[in-house]
Design goal:
Elements lengths: L6 E7 L2 E6 L3 E3 L2 E4 L5 E4 L4 E7 L1 H17 L4 H14 L1 H4 L3 E6 L4 E5 L4 E2 L5 E5 L2 H14 L4 H15 L8 E6 L3
Antiparallel strand pairs: 1-2, 1-10, 2-11, 3-4, 5-6, 6-7, 7-8, 8-9
Helix pairs in contact: 1-2, 4-5
Amino acid sequence: MKLHATTILTVRHQGKVAIGGDGQVTLDTMVMKADAVKIRQLMDGKVLCGFAGGGADAFALLERFEKKLKDYPANVPRAATELAKEWRTDRALRRLQAMMAVVDAKNTLLVNGVGDVINPTDGILGIGSGGPYAIAAARALVKHSTLSAKEIVDQALRIAADIDIYTNTNITIHELDSAS
């Protein structure tokens, strides 16, 4: 699924996990809003979620994911898998155009409508149109700098914003202690 919208990046580094996103909302080729917040805290701040794609679609998925987290409160991968199954099999949900990046102390997950729930090996995950640029920048910064997870997310998102026209530098970042 190729989304022409936003950039969400998560980095797990030095005992922390950070997730950030830009604030740009576009409608076709026009910037409609520059300060949207696409990162949400769930489960009293123990789970962080970022979304890319259609705003209404993303909020619909976020609500369903929150319900799954309540069903499986100590098991974020299970909640994400149950959401992905429902997303893939439900006729109405299947049409939703969005992706989610989800983190907690132990897990970094990509969740999409194809049914994927992917945990990246290196703890770096990017979604949205600027995702590949942000991932490349974050991997370089993890390897060749002493920056914190939060600083890496910030710098990598700024690099992506310099390249991707659907990403801006109005960045929101949240951070948790990491168990891995």
